[in-house]
Write a structure and sequence with these properties.
278 residues, alpha+beta, six-stranded antiparallel sheet, 10 strands, 42% helix, 16% strand
Length: 278
């Protein structure tokens, strides 16, 4: 898989068009497919809002997101497929490089700059990972490697806006840090394929590449606390309410205990990250 969005597996035929399953995701694992030039995935009550947002940021000059086509009669949303490499765990070495990380931060800054022109009022959003402090700028909220398209090791597009919702840009940046520094216990970092790395400088790299000022850097640490608490609450809620597919996927990814390990690790290393941002 060198020029495809996630790995392609089982092929089926629908309306004469072959559908190729795409890897990745948790709640939608196994349900996202490619059909010719398009990607089909389960829609949500918020897909209409997300499509309005994606069209708007494209109009405002941001090319790094899927172009929505619409909602099919079977209830799936249809988006234009983006050619490129999308890493899935265990992540390839190139996707863990500082160059790749900086390019994701710059791409996220581009999304935020375009989103400043968008008014989210009157639309509905998934608040599962949304900024608990609220805000007016629509953020992605789930920028992990498997939601990024790369070409030649550089991030060119963001995928899966399922958790997009209004919030603060720094909170979106904190979610990126949580997922791609990563802010993770050593055991879980190795389990999902992250190579050993000096992680505090990677947080500084994100702040530098994004263009975060001094006040924003101080706010970033607090936002990371918020992001860690938010994802833990969402995961526990998902485990309580989700079906067997959600529970099985969560268990494969370290189970609910990984959140306790992550919290302890972040508390132990917090001062090192604070010093790196000075």
């Amino acid at each position: 898989m060198s020029t495809a969005c996630r790995q392609l597996h089982s092929v089926c035929q629908t309306s004469g068009i072959a559908e190729q399953q795409l890897d990745g995701g948790i709640a939608n694992a196994g349900q996202v497919v490619r059909a010719g030039p398009h990607v089909l995935r389960p829609s949500s009550p918020h897909s209409g809002s997300i499509h309005v947002f994606l069209r708007a940021v494209k109009d405002f000059g941001f090319e790094g997101a899927p172009t929505p086509v619409g909602i099919d009669e079977d209830g799936r949303e249809r988006l234009v497929f983006i050619e490129g490499d999308v890493p899935v765990a265990p992540y390839p070495d190139w996707s863990q490089s500082d160059t790749a990380l900086a390019s994701i931060a710059r791409l996220l800054r581009g999304l935020h700059d375009a989103a400043r022109e968008f008014d989210p009022q009157g639309l509905t959003w998934n608040d599962g990972l949304a900024d608990p402090a609220g805000g007016t700028l629509v953020c992605h909220n789930d920028v992990e490697l498997s939601n990024v398209v790369f070409r030649d090791g550089i991030a060119v597009a963001l995928l899966d806006f399922e958790f997009a919702a209004p919030g603060r840009p720094v909170y979106d940046l904190a979610q990126l840090a949580r997922l791609c520094v990563p802010i993770e216990d050593d055991f879980d970092q190795e389990r999902i394929g992250w190579l050993p790395a000096d992680r505090p400088p990677r947080l500084r790299l994100i702040a530098d590449a994004y263009g975060l000022d001094r006040d924003g850097r101080a706010e970033l640490l607090t936002a990371i606390n918020d992001a860690l608490a938010r994802i833990e609450a969402a995961a526990r809620r998902s485990m309580d309410e989700g079906g067997p597919n959600t529970v099985a996927t969560m268990n494969r990814r370290g189970g609910i205990e990984k959140f306790d390990r992550r919290r302890r690790w972040w508390t132990t290393h917090h001062d090192q990250f604070a010093a790196a941002l000075l």
